[in-house]
Amino acid sequence: MSYTIGYFVGSLSSASINRTLADAMISLAPDQLEFREIPIGGLPLYSPDHDADYPAEARVLKRAIEESDGILFVSPEYNRSIPGALKNAIDWGSRPWGTNSFARKPTGIAGASIGAIGTAVMQSSMRGVLSFLDAPQLNAPEVYVRVEPGTFAEDGTLLDDSLAQFLRHYMEEYCAFVQRVLAANAPGHI
Ligand code: FNR
After folding, report:
1. ipTM value of the model?
2. What is the Cα–Cα distance from 101 to 75, expressed in whole angstroms?
């Protein structure tokens, strides 16, 4: 059986190290997982004024989340928190009230930084947001990647073998977690 994973890259940068990390994680994931990016760059800023008539970009976003078996966030940390573009996308997905698209979706969080703590504070903030949205999260292992010269090649190839081994392990754990949550969500399961 295969599972569709919708993934968010929390950076709009054309040279994003988080996009490079997401690509590496996808390449190391079990074959059962099929990945589709859920783009965030074209969304307007969320306002409750849109709730009565969501714009097309936001409808597409909500449908992409709802059609995914699991969600993966790969994001930088901005000023010790979630980048605005990603938080905006999450806000769109959570509304209008009563139609939270993230409810019960198994989620994973990863991040890359040039700084020493590898997006730890952003991830902690994300966990609060996803808890409020009733989205189960893979708690362990955690993916805090510090990108240094030699982590990735110019073409995005992952050069760090121990990181590759760890990311492969993470994706196996994430796959098992998605399967567990989907089984728990199935009708008839207590
Ligand atoms: C950063 N950066 C950063 N890094 C970090 O570890 N903690 C932080 O709080 C911040 N804050 C921050 C704010 C803003 C506005 C920018 C632009 C950058 C540095 C960040 O880790 C670095 O720019 C990464 O390359 C961002 O990831 P992407 O965009 O390359 O995926």
Report:
1. 0.99
2. 20
User: Looking at residues 1-25, what average pLDDT do you find?
Assistant: 98
User: Which pair of structure tokens corresponds to residue 28?
Assistant: 């190391």
DSSP 29: S
Pocket test for ligand 1, best of 114, 119, 126, 146 (most atoms within 8 A of CB): 114
CATH 3.50.50.60 applies to domain 3-185: no
186: CB partners within 8 A, 6+ apart: none
Q: Which protein residues touch ligand 1 with a CB less than 6 Å away?
A: 11, 13, 16-18, 76-80, 113-115
Domain ranges across the chain: 3-185
Question: 0.95 cut: is pTM over it?
Answer: yes
Residue 21 has, within 13 A of its CA and on its CB side, a CA count of 33
- Distance, first Cα to last Cα, the chain: 23
